[in-house]
Design brief:
The mean pLDDT is about 90. The protein has 10 helices and 13 strands. The radius of gyration is 19 Å and the shape is globular. It folds into 3 domains: about 120 residues, D-Maltodextrin-Binding Protein, domain 2 (3-Layer(aba) Sandwich), CATH 3.40.190; about 80 residues, 3-Layer(aba) Sandwich (D-Maltodextrin-Binding Protein, domain 2), CATH 3.40.190.10; about 60 residues, 2-Layer Sandwich (Double Stranded RNA Binding Domain), CATH 3.30.160.40. About 30% of the residues lie in helices and about 25% in strands. The strands form 3 sheets. A 5-stranded mixed β-sheet has the order 2-1-3-10-4, sandwiched between helices. The chain is α/β, with parallel strands linked by helices and about 300 residues long. Strand 11 and strand 12 form a beta hairpin.
Length: about 300
């Protein structure tokens, strides 16, 4: 019998490789190692153009488009992404086949504790969502853009009072960072009441071709149903807003009793306005979209794309 072979398309950063290898290990564990796995590393335009903001490059899908193309043109069978990088609409020919068990979705402040940030402190982040929420709570703060892989951003931390990152990213690379003496001394976890996470943050998403039934069967074995329901609600929220993962918006869903509870936050793009709502429902798609519609209505004319 021929050993099944899966090629995983992934970005080349240390974090992306960790994530792809993690999925490979999950698949081998679920199928008792009866699978041959190869990583296909793709250098994306977003990885090369660190001098250009994500919004200037087009926003939607800049970290994932070329990875998805590798699956569509059959250079790979599956693509592994940080779910937070995915636009809400999956390209024709692909399917979001699996969401594995989610890691901690919260953001962290690196270099200083949130409670200790001085008046007028300088904070660096590449995300509109993070900047808008921090500016709402602390209008005195100054902000700079920050891009690059985890090591690059940590190396730039000393130039600012603090930088903002995803906790899951630091957790996943902690052993590598400690081995290189690069683990930051101060990592302050931001409460979701201060910083609502990005849609899908902390979760890994696996895409494959719609017509590849065999691969979809393999991926079903590593699906984590509670994480999938939560991420589906958050992605429905994003879809209702227009589908772009760079929007000044966040959502965090958890399973409560027999349904999904989701908190969404939406910031006005050009003024310090923020609206927030928490709602519970049995249908993840419905409750996610409802929260988004309510927030758009609450912002009114201030919500201008």
């Amino acid at each position: 019998m021929t050993t099944p072979r899966l090629r995983i398309a992934t970005r080349g950063s240390a974090l992306a490789r960790w994530q792809a290898q993690h999925i490979a290990d999950l698949l081998r564990g679920a199928h008792h190692s009866a699978i041959e796995i190869e990583l296909v590393v793709i250098e994306t335009t977003a990885d090369r153009r660190l001098d250009v903001s994500i919004e200037q490059m087009g926003g939607k899908g800049v970290f994932v488009k070329e990875i998805q193309e590798a699956v569509l043109d059959r250079r790979a069978e599956i693509a592994v992404h940080s779910a937070k990088d995915l636009p809400a609409v999956t390209p024709e020919g692909l399917v979001l086949a699996s969401i594995t068990e989610r890691a901690d979705p919260r953001d962290v402040l690196v270099g200083a504790r949130y409670a200790d940030l001085a008046q007028g402190a300088h904070v660096a982040t590449g995300a509109q969502r993070r900047r808008a929420q921090l500016a709402f709570h602390r209008p005195d703060l100054r902000f700079s853009d920050l891009r690059g892989n985890i090591a690059t951003r940590l190396a730039k931390c000393a130039a600012y009072d603090a930088i903002v990152m995803a906790k899951a990213a630091l957790d996943r690379l902690e052993s590598q960072l400690r081995a290189n003496d690069a683990m930051p001394a101060i990592v302050d976890v931001l409460d979701t009441g201060v910083m609502t996470p990005q849609v899908g943050q902390g979760a890994l998403a696996i895409e494959c071709r719609v017509d590849d039934g065999g691969v979809r069967g393999w991926l079903a074995a590593v699906e984590h149903e509670p994480s999938r329901r939560a991420v589906d609600a958050e992605r429905a929220f994003l879809a209702e807003l227009g589908g772009d993962c760079t929007l000044p918006a966040g959502a965090y869903a958890t399973l409560v009793n027999d349904g999904v509870q989701i908190t969404g936050v939406l910031c006005a793009p050009h003024q310090p306005m923020l609206v927030k709502e928490t709602r519970h429902g049995k249908d993840p798609q419905l409750v996610g979209r409802l929260v988004a519609r309510n927030l758009i209505e609450a912002l009114g004319d201030a919500w201008v794309q």
